[in-house]
Amino acid sequence: MRSVVISTCLLLWGVALHGQDSYSQTGHTGKHDQLSWGPAPAVFPAGAKMAVVSGDPGKDEMFTIQLSMPDGYRIPPHSHPTDEDVKVLKGTLLVGMGDTLDLSKANAIKAGGTGKVPAKMHHYAAAKGATQISVTAMGPFAMTYVNPADDPQTTTHP
């Protein structure tokens, strides 16, 4: 159960608005091949892609997004102000709880696995193989990094 909760938290990181443009311009059909994919918002480390399945993460309403991450992609420790429901659609999501990214303590959630990440819980995630997740939560989406230096919006990472 702990690994499911952790993975759910990680999924939501990619939807963070925190000063980003509305997500309503992306596709809403729910089918992977019919979604409108684009780079994940700047609150996420570079390299992930995102598509909105339903709702608008920038508004006070329920939304569902999909996040696609390449092998080795990492999201540093962070939290969200609302609960998140996460499902791993492809690959393996490594999820851990706490203030320090330590993949040796992460739980592996494989395709088909689901979980819920409580609001304000500190968590981190990484992709093992090409990984895709679905995240459902109440908007507006926000993501706060435990260490402000990890926020890609405020720092330049290699």
Q: Could you say which overall geometry the principal axes of the C-alpha atoms support?
A: globular
Oligomeric state as shown: single chain
**Could you name the ranges where pLDDT drops below 50 across 5 or more consecutive residues?**
1-30
Count of individual domains: 1
Protein model, in words:
By secondary structure, this protein is mostly beta strands. The chain has one helix and nine strands, in the order αβββββββββ. The protein has one helix at 2-13; strands spanning 38-39, 49-54, 62-69, 74-79, 84-97, 107-110, 114-117, 123-138, 144-145. Strands 1, 2, 3, 4, 5, 6, 7, 8 and 9 form a nine-stranded antiparallel β-sheet that branches. The longest helix is centred in the N-terminal third of the chain and has 12 residues, at 2-13. The radius of gyration is 14 Å and the shape is globular. The protein starts with a helix and ends in a 13-residue tail after the last strand. 42% of the residues are buried. The model is unreliable at 1-30 (pLDDT under 50).
